[in-house]
Design goal:
Strand content: 15-25%
Structural class: alpha+beta
Order of helices and strands: HHEEEEEEHHHEE
Strand order of the largest sheet: 1-6-3
Shape: elongated
Length: about 200
């Protein structure tokens, strides 16, 4: 089962290091170095690709706020585990905005989204992500562990290669998810009727 020890040892091996962890409780230079970057780099690695294991959907309720949201009418709280927004279903990116930890839009609730969530438990990770994340960790700790910048560059190239391979695997494994039609697109196929951002139909 994939765990902290697995990732740390993969990263060490990628850097040509013989030292290996035997337990997550080991208090070694390698263990401390990996822990120092673990959370930040995990979220960064999830942001770097639309990983299937991290994909989620949510229907967001409207926030009650007195803030000036102009030119938008409503605000919606992003989920606590949000790492990256993939889409607001039925809307083009220019029809909403992310500000801080909120989405601003003119759409009435619920606001349906697809997003990448943080998945802290390594046992739930895709195998391709495990390999890619280990290379990203190796890239970030290389100078601290080896003092050799060339090993950091090598780990970075390996990480980028893993991302390209993951995208190829996803393309074969999962058909693209169609984006739902926006109001404008629906209107073009409705014989001249216009559907606004609130879903109202106008002649």
């Amino acid at each position: 089962m994939t765990n902290f020890v697995t990732i740390a040892n993969l990263a060490a091996s990628a850097l040509g290091e013989d030292d290996q962890l035997r337990s997550p409780d080991d208090d070694t230079h390698l263990s401390r170095s990996v822990r120092a970057v673990w959370d930040v780099e995990r979220k960064a690695a999830i942001r770097d690709h639309s990983w299937n294991f991290a994909m989620a959907r949510a229907a967001l309720p409207r926030l009650v706020t007195d803030d000036d949201l102009h030119p938008y009418a409503f605000a919606y709280q992003l989920p606590a585990d949000h790492v990256r927004l993939i889409e607001v279903v039925g809307f083009q990116p220019r029809q909403y905005a992310i500000e801080g930890d909120r989405i601003l839009a003119n759409a009435t609730a619920p606001l349906r989204i697809r997003y990448l969530r943080d998945v802290p438990e390594p046992a739930r990770w895709d195998a391709m992500f495990v390999k890619a994340f280990a290379m990203r960790v190796a890239w970030q700790i290389a100078d601290r562990i080896t003092g050799d910048i060339s090993r950091a560059h090598l780990a970075e190239r390996r990480y980028m290669a893993m991302l390209r391979e993951a995208k190829r695997v996803d393309a074969r494994e999962n058909p693209p998810v169609p984006h739902e039609a926006t109001g404008w697109e629906l209107a073009r196929g409705s014989g001249g009727e216009r559907i606004d951002d609130k879903g109202l139909v106008w002649p």
